[in-house]
Write a structure and sequence with these properties.
The structure is a homodimer. Chain A contains 6 helices and no strands. By secondary structure, chain A is mainly alpha-helical. Chain A has a single domain, classed as Methane Monooxygenase Hydroxylase, Chain G, domain 1. In chain A, helix 5 runs antiparallel to helix 6. The first copy, chain A, is elongated. At the A-B interface, helix 2, helix 3, helix 5 and helix 6 of A face helix 2, helix 3, helix 5 and helix 6 of B. Chains A, B: Keywords: Cytoplasm, Phosphate transport, Transport.
Chain lengths: ~250, ~250
């Protein structure tokens, strides 16, 4: 390989990495806008989020095509190969994050049709945490900083706990006032979408570990979506111990 | 390249493809068992499904490691390269399908703690359809049959429609009897999990198209999760037109 080729391959890898960073920025903005649309009952903003989802899909197609082109053209090894495989993995996580943001926006349209319900405040609360995790993971990717990636990965547990407590709160609220069942159900799915966005952020953190260290992160993060076990019945404090971890 | 190398690379690709087929079989079995556990309120079966999810995760790790090894060792081109990239993509979709099956099993434990509710029958109904789609997609992968993959991909719309109608039915049921809110909420999430499994099956169908044809499937499948727009209020037939597609 001549210096020229080597240099230009480095530039191509940098370009691929920049595409991921840009896609991550758009995904972050989509999550932020979707969460704002819910809190403000802003139908215009929600519609913009749903429309902008195509941009994220287009990024994924471009990144996949470029990654495959580089694999074929450059036949990379070691770190270079991991860079390209990581780009394929991260772009698919970001694409899913975009889908969840779009679904949150979609549901906010249904919420805006009915009177606001108190537990809606939990959406911005979860949104702030998930956006902080996404920001740290994307910074960790740019800086190739494994420690920062793992720190963000660990915060996902806070998000799961927040989701689990919200799940119980919303269920109780629905039982107290069945007229809130429709908005509360959309709230539950929005919260679930935010929890799933956090899971995809942790996938990206794991990919960063693989990218930099060269081996998969094998520690099992305790997955604590206690809500899947939740049994809430009207005035049932003695049920509370039935919620939580397996 | 000597014939020997060529032959053994072909064998390695076949082995990778076989791993995907096995992983698909396990994922299919997990979905089937999870759906059965719900219908039969079978806590033992549900627990088995949750434990077996590790097997699927292990398949994904093995497939990723093998794919990366082949990329580095064989520096493949064209169809061979697409085989390996497709294995990476499909293994991650199958891993997600396994997670959803495990979550359905997890929620069935909560359902088994409370009296059965009528809409539970919708889970096996959706389950049969999603299992049929998964079977067709996996057959299409084994046979490298694009037409079969696209046919399965199109059936995902039936699944979305089934999910949307179930969503309204369950919401109405909750409103009629708020004591059913907890089990009905778990039902909604189980149905959503089945709908998501269908989405991952369509991703696999799209990957098969890329694998065989060499270009991404660019037709946009009309995404019809009308439930995200659903507004259901007690005795509100005039709201029904507010549900459905955007």
């Amino acid at each position: 390989m001549t210096d020229h080729i080597v240099r230009s391959f480095a530039q191509e890898l940098q370009r691929l990495s920049n595409l991921i960073t840009q896609m991550g920025g758009v995904a972050e903005a989509q999550v932020d806008a979707a969460v704002k649309a819910v809190g403000r009952r802003d139908v215009t903003l929600a519609t913009q989020v749903m429309q902008a989802d195509q941009r994220i899909d287009a990024y994924e197609r471009d990144i996949d095509a470029e990654a495959i082109r580089l694999l074929a053209l450059r036949q990379p090894l070691a770190q270079d190969l991991r860079e390209i495989v990581s780009a394929l993995k991260i772009s698919s996580d970001l694409e899913r994050i975009g889908d969840y943001a779009s679904n949150i926006a979609k549901r906010s349209l249904a919420l805006a049709q009915v009177p606001a319900v108190r537990p809606v405040v939990a959406v911005p609360r979860m949104g702030r945490l998930v956006e902080a995790i996404m920001k740290d993971v994307l910074d960790a990717y740019i800086e190739r900083d494994v420690a920062k990636a793992i720190a963000a990965w660990e915060r996902d547990e806070e998000l799961d706990d927040l989701y689990t407590s919200l799940f119980r709160e919303v269920l109780t609220y629905m039982m107290e006032d069945p007229r809130t069942i429709t908005p509360c159900t959309h709230l539950l799915f929005m919260a679930k979408n935010l929890e799933r966005i956090g899971d995809h952020a942790t996938n990206i953190a794991e990919t960063i570990h693989f990218l930099v260290v060269g081996a998969p992160l094998r520690v099992e993060r305790p997955k604590s979506d206690g809500s899947s076990f939740a049994v809430v019945t009207p005035s049932s404090d003695n049920d509370s111990d039935r919620t939580g971890q397996a």
